[in-house]
Amino acid sequence: MNFANLSTSTILLGSIAAAAFLVYFPYVVVAITRFQVGFDISAPRATFDKLPDYGKRASWAHQNSWEAFMLYGAAALMAYATHQDSPTVVNCAIGFIGARLLYSIFYIINFPIGRSLMFGVGSVAIFTLMSMSITSTMN
């Protein structure tokens, strides 16, 4: 996709929507594995103990995605509210989405180094957006 034609504001808001979608990306794997092991509607949480390892990892990736989404949502909204408009902001928004997609994939397939690196990339993007926003209000 050509992001050059989109405003930074559009990219920031779109990245928040994409990050919300990515919260549920690993849960698709959880849902599939839950039905494979015999989902019990009367005890849905008990089903998690029966999941294969990759299903458990997908569940953990889903839970971590909620945590990351809250921080990223705040960071992106801070950048939006302070009218940040730079290539760095765009790179952070796009980089966060790419990193979180890969984070979930690496978590599910059990590639810990890749998962950790993607966690780091996402964290740097969040920190950068927040610090740029705070710094801009100090002038």
Descriptive labels:
4 helices; elongated; single chain; mainly alpha; 139 residues
Secondary structural class? mainly alpha
Number of strands: 0
- CA radius of gyration: 17 Å
Q: Looking at the structure, what is the overall shape? A: elongated
Sketch the topology as an H/E string, one letter per element.
HHHH
SS field, number of helical segments: 4
Helix content: over 70%
The main sheet comes to: none
Mean pLDDT: 93
Q: What share of the residues does DSSP label as strand, in percent?
A: under 5%
**Poorly predicted regions:** none
Distance between the termini: 35 Å
Task: Summarize the structure in words.
By secondary structure, the chain is an all-alpha fold. Helix content is 76%, strand content 0%. α1 (8-36) runs antiparallel to α2 (53-81), α2 runs parallel beside α4 (112-137) and α3 packs antiparallel against α4. The chain is elongated, with a radius of gyration of 17 Å. The mean pLDDT is 93.
